[in-house]
Amino acid sequence: MELDDKTIIKKLKSNNQDIIDEGFEELYLKYSKLIYVCIKRYIKRKEDIEDLLSDTFLKIFENRLNLRDDKNFKYYLTTTANNLAINFLKNKNNDYDILEYEHFDTYESNNNDLKDMIDILKSQLEQDEVDIIIQHLIYAYTFEDIAKQNNLNVSTVKTKYFRAIKKVKV
């Protein structure tokens, strides 16, 4: 059974090393795929993605005593991963280009329906609308999370989302 974030954070803050290890393992199992995809938005090389994935969880582990269970933990994790990836790119002297959802063009999945859906979205919508739909439907971000990440009002995000969905349905 998958634990909720509050329970995982409580375990990470424990004084018992076995409980901390258990909490960290549960955290990794619950979020490693999501963090991998977040980093892959920016980074091409698998080895670099895996290094940044480890760095993300190491940073969370190092700051585990400061984690707050009243905040959106998934948002905190993905923001940490995104920031590490962007800093990695800055430190690589522009050997990489920052990618915006380009990873879906080479999406490693047997499910071609997802790639087809994204291609349809890209052909019919503005990039900001595609971004909002992907963040909401694929990453399962709330409208509030999307608004924070994109420095927009929640109502603006909702309006763009529902108008975009309406455009695609037509």
Chart the SSEs and their pairings.
Blueprint: H1 5-12, H2 17-40, H3 46-62, H4 73-91, H5 112-124, H6 127-137, H7 143-150, H8 154-169
Annotated CATH homologous superfamily of the largest domain: RNA polymerase sigma factor, region 2, helix turn helix motif
Distance between the termini: 40 Å
Radius of gyration: 17 Å
Gross morphology is: globular
What is the helix fraction of residues, given as a range? 55-70%
Number of helices, counting only DSSP H or I runs of 4 residues or more: 8
> How many strand units?
0
Low-confidence stretches: 93-111
- Supply the CATH class of the largest domain: Mainly Alpha
What structural category do the secondary elements indicate?
A: mainly alpha
Q: Secondary-structure element sequence?
A: HHHHHHHH
Give a description of the structure.
With 170 residues, this protein is mainly alpha-helical. The chain folds into two domains: 1-94, RNA polymerase sigma factor, region 2, helix turn helix motif (Rna Polymerase Sigma Factor, Chain: A, Orthogonal Bundle); 109-170, Winged helix-like DNA-binding domain superfamily/Winged helix DNA-binding domain (Arc Repressor Mutant, subunit A, Orthogonal Bundle), CATH 1.10.10.10. Helix content is 68%, strand content 0%. The protein is built from eight helices and no strands. It has helices at residues 5-12, 17-40, 46-62, 73-91, 112-124, 127-137, 143-150, 154-169. The protein is globular and about 55 Å long.
